[in-house]
Here is the input.
Amino acid sequence: MTDNPLLGTATRCFACGPDNPIGLKIDFTVADGTCSGRFTPGKYHVGFNDTVHGGIIFSALDDVMANLLYLQGIKAYTAKCEIRYRRALRVGETIELTSRVENERRRLVTLKGEARLAEGGDLVADCSASFMLE
Here is the structure.
């Protein structure tokens, strides 16, 4: 994917940008039609006590879906996303993020994303989103 004209254009992205000093810095890869990444929340990602804020989990899931397209040189924007939280995520618990395409129709791509505990595989949250192709 060295010929991807988009690479290097989102270095300050909150979720995956290496140049964002307060970002999540998730490193995403694409293989066999699936995008994946890992994230371990820290003390600055909490909402209540040691529970990770739902917005942080949402951001990670939105970005694993967006990167499935972005890393293949496809520019798109989130049009709609529905998330379902299945269990609390605690500070220090690593999650595995994955996404895949569910449907493609003209300029709209529907993707499915999941966040599972790296240890044990429990489902933390899953979502479905529509992305508008540019």
Q: What stands out?
A: The chain has a mean pLDDT of 92. Residues 29-133 form a domain with the Thiol Ester Dehydrase; Chain A fold (CATH 3.10.129.10).
